[in-house]
Amino acid sequence: MTPAPTKVVRWDATARRFDPAKMQKVGLFETPRFFLDLYCLEAGQQQKAHAHAESDKVYLVVEGEGAFRVGEETVRLGVGEGVLAAPGEVHGIENDSGERLVVLTFMSPPPS
Amino acid sequence: MTPAPTKVVRWDATARRFDPAKMQKVGLFETPRFFLDLYCLEAGQQQKAHAHAESDKVYLVVEGEGAFRVGEETVRLGVGEGVLAAPGEVHGIENDSGERLVVLTFMSPPPS
């Protein structure tokens, strides 16, 4: 049997995709255990606050800055910072900066 | 009950830790579902090839470049690139560059 090709992805500028209509999700990896996406938000765009009963979600900022809600708190995060939303914690993103915001997003387990 | 403080981490230069003796692992998050570490390799250091029967592992390069083995393949990855090792696939890192290498490393589920 031929081995499956190695799963290499890019999450740099060439991988990013923006849409004036809404935040874009670029899928990088997905398995039964997790997904990894690149969330791309134009200035003013958001991911509406929501919660997952069973999953952790991690946001890691790779470009720009924005307001991240986790539970009852909202924190401002920039490049090189990240935050964890535990199962059941409400979380969301508001790109209230004047620039683009790009976020590596892990979720484990992925939605079923 | 006071809400738990929001779990914010840094994975920028301030979070990195190097040791001439061996690769350093800086823990960022750990839950029953995953861990996220920052692996910091001086020039010439490595993470020896190994496998996990049940877990996915993702390497994302955030500084420098190096050789990443996944299964029977070895790929060169630089900043903005990443690779997935599926359960059972041998994987490891060789920093064969002349510079430091920093890798966000996600594993799901974490070792039991």
Plain-language structure description:
The structure is a homodimer of 112-residue chains. Chain A is mainly beta and 112 residues long. Chain A has a single domain (25-108), classed as Jelly Rolls, CATH 2.60.120. Helices cover 0% and strands 54% of the residues of chain A. Chain A contains no helices and 10 strands. In chain A, a hairpin with a 4-residue loop joins β2 and β3 (35-41). The interface between A and B is large, with 40 and 40 residues.
> How many structural domains in the coordinates of chain A?
1
- Looking at the structure, the CATH topology of chain A is Jelly Rolls
Number of distinct helices of chain A: 0
User: What would you call the structural class of chain A?
Assistant: mainly beta
Q: What CATH first level of chain A would be assigned?
A: Mainly Beta
Uncertain segments of chain A = none
The total of beta strands of chain A comes to: 10
**How far apart lie the N and C ends of chain A?**
30 Å
Order of helices and strands of chain A: EEEEEEEEEE
Looking at this structure, what is the CATH superfamily of chain A?
Answer: Jelly Rolls
Mean pLDDT of chain A: 94
| Helix content percent band of chain A | under 10%
Placed side by side, the strands forming the largest sheet of chain A appear as 2-3-10-5-8
- Major β-sheet annotation of chain A: 5 strands, antiparallel
Q: How large is the radius of gyration of chain A?
A: 14 Å
Chains forming the largest contact: A-B, 40 and 40 residues
CATH architecture assignment of chain A? Sandwich
Beta-strand content estimate of chain A: over 45%
User: What spatial form of chain A do the alpha-carbon principal axes imply?
Assistant: globular
